[in-house]
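An instance as discussed:

___
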Amino acid sequence: MTAIPVIVGLSSAVVFLVLLAKLVQRNRMPLGESSLDTEHVAALSEAWSDQWFEDFSSFRYLPMRRLLAAEEEEYWMQSTDGAPSRLAAFRAERRRLFREYLRLISADFGRLSQGVRLSIVHANADRSAEIAHLMSLEWSLRKLLWQAELNLMFHWLGVKPVDATELINALQGFEFSLREVRISGAAA
C-alpha cells in the first residue's frame, strides 16, 4: 500500500525533470535554429483539402528513421575521424533536424485528423466501426509523438538513440486507413 504513493511521487519527479530539461534544451537553442522558413510556416498553417490529401505521402518521412541512429553516428565518426567536441555538434544538428521533422509530422497529422472529422461529418451510412478504428489510430499516433519528444530529450542527455520507425509506421497506417475510409465512402 505504501509503494503506490512512492511510485507516483517518483514518476512525477521524473516527469518534472524531463520537462525541465526540455525547457532548458529549447532555451539554449539559438533563435535561428528553431524558426522555420516562410515556406514551412505556410505549409504548417495549411488546412485540410482534398488536393492536399491527394498529394500527401507519409513516405517522405522515411529518412527520419536514420537521423538519430547510432549507426549513423558511428559511420560519421569513422569517416571524419570526428573529435568528441565535433560529435556533440553533429548530434545537436541531427536533433534539430529531427525536431523539424516532428513539427512537420504534427502539422500533417493535424490535417489528417481534420480529414477524419470531415469523413465523420460527411458519412452517408453508419461507418462507426471504421471511424472508431481511425480514432484509435489517432490516439496511438498522438502517444507516439509525445514519446518521440521524450526520446529526443533522452538523446540530448546521451542516454539512447532515437528510432522513429514506429512513429512513421503509425503515420502511414493512419494515412492508409483514412484513404480506405474515403474510398469506401465515395463508393457508397
Notes: DSSP finds nine helices and no strands in the chain. The chain has two domains: 1-31, 36-187.
